[in-house]
Amino acid sequence: MSDTKITQSVKIELTPNSMKVLERRYLKKDEGGKIIETPEELFLRVAKVVAEPDKNYGASDLEVEKSVEEFYRMMAKLEFMPNSPTLMNAGRPLGQLSACFVIPIEDSMESIFDAVKNTALIHKSGGGTGFSFSRLRPRNSPVASTSGVASGPISFMKVINSATEAVKQGGTRRGANMGVLRVDHPDILEFITSKDNLSELTNFNVSVAITDSFMQAVENDEIYDLIDPRTQKTYIKDGKPARYKAKEIFSLIVEHAWRSGEPGVMFLDKMNQGNPVIQVGLIESTNPCGEQPLLPYESCNLGSINLSKMVRAVVDSSDPTTMYRCEIDWDRVENTVKKAVHFLDNVIDANKYPLPEIEKNTRANRKIGLGVMGWADMLIQLKIPYDSFEAVKLAERMMSFIHEKSHQTSSELAQKRGNFPHWDKSIYHHKQIPMRNSTVTTIAPAGTISIIAGSSSGIEPLFAISYIRTVMDNTKMVETNPFFEKEAQERGFHSEQLMEKIAEKGSIQEFEEIHDDIKKIYVTSHDIAFEWHVRHQAAFQKYTDNAVSKTINLPNQATVEDVENAYKLAYQLGCKGVTIYRDGSREAQVLATRKERKEEGKIVPKDRPTTLSGITDKIKTGYGNLYVTINTFDGKPFEVFAQIGKSGYSTMADTEAICRLISLALRSDIAVDKIIEQLMEIGGASQVFQEGGRIMSIPDAIAKVLNKHFGTNQNANRDRDLTYEFCPDCGTKLDHDSGCVVCSQCGFSKC
Question: Pairing relation of β-strands 177-182 and 204-210?
Answer without folding.
Answer: parallel
